[in-house]
Request: fold
Amino acid sequence: MEGWHWYRPGISREEKILVFKLDLSILLFGCLSTFTKTLDNQALTNAYVTGMQEDIGLTGNDLNYLTAVYYSSYLSFMIPASFMLTRLPISRILPTMEILWGISTFGCAWVHNLKQLYVCRFFLGATETVAFTGVIYVIGSWYKRDELGTRMALFQISAPLGSMISGYLQTAAYSHLNGRHGIEGWRWLFIICFCITFPCALIGYACFPNQPNNTRPSWWLKQSEIELANKRLEEEGIMKIEKKINWRALTRVLRGWPWYCFVFAWCLYDQNQFWGTTPFSLYLKASDRHYTVSQINNYPTVGKAIAIILTVIGSYYSDKTGDRFSPTLLGAILVASGSIILVVWNVSEGARFYAFFIDGAETAMSTFLMSWASDVVKHDSEARSIITASMNCIGQVFLAWVPIFTFNVTKAPKFTVGFIFSMVTGILHVVLACFIQVLDVRRKRKEKRRVLLIDAGHGNDADVIDMDNQESSSSTREKN
Reply:
């Protein structure tokens, strides 16, 4: 395992046992939770192209409106709720929301009109509010920097894996359960998703931890192991969370470049990863080649397989080298090339399939962006919580309404506006990745200089920060 960089070289036996327990408790629940969320979300598209559209009378752009309702609910309390995750028991909040999510999914199996489906989608969004950022925050709170990328990768690949399984489940449900007990095949998919969700919540109640500084001893984590975990964080210089809410933390975060750059990068990520999902399924359904139900559900899973492969390889490389930039840049370039092919459009069917498939590289970039953002603010727990929550929230604010105009369902199979928009955002993502790298290199140089000055006895950390600020102000005056 050390050879694969799962455990750091030279790690003690006690620390290895601790990390092993953290992997089982945090990653097991986190991966299952993300898997079920993505499985249930993708189920809407799979159900739409497998009979739901006709059965409950969906027309026009209804599919995009359903997505907008979901995200509107999801985003309503996203940032405040994520900020409160630093103060409330995550070990109880996340499993409870998992149960409520499963109940809302089960309701989708029994809808008979658009209004009922709107209600279910609203509650699905509300119950997923803190799931993603909550798990991301806990992962970033327990692991060291050189352990973070591989864990983040394993967590992130559960999302494309959920999308893949959803396509196969829908194919199986349509082939073997359609009409069983008078229930249509697409309804069975939501029932199956509901059955998968509940065991995940029970695992969360059993062993998912809070933050290291407010986790109590349990049957899973002993007091000595909790103390070791806090010692590990002190060695990394990670800031402990204050007991009272410090609203000044928000203004502190907004004064730095990481919030703006990583939030913008995540907005581009959300837009770029979209056209390889629902638009691809709609392309297959509207194509004059008359693809079968199985093909419509299964072909989009190829992009998810690409996402999983690139996530594993890229995360192993980035953890081994500490380089988050190169995998991010490579993914952005691949996705931009795919969007250019779709803009050209008059190409072979194989070239179009390549373009849709390679969008899976964008899904892989979520791991690299989240790991990169966590690295940059590793020493500030509140900043990490605010930035990751903002990335997820603000990115999906635009995802809630932009596809209504860029990928109008009635324009399938050729989404001209959407493909041009994706090409622009893809190129912007390449440029932004380079820009973040420049800023990150400057940050590392300042941190290295600060440590050297402190070790040389030139004052404490606050004094060195003041020196940096004075130099920065002097440099600004000289430029003026």
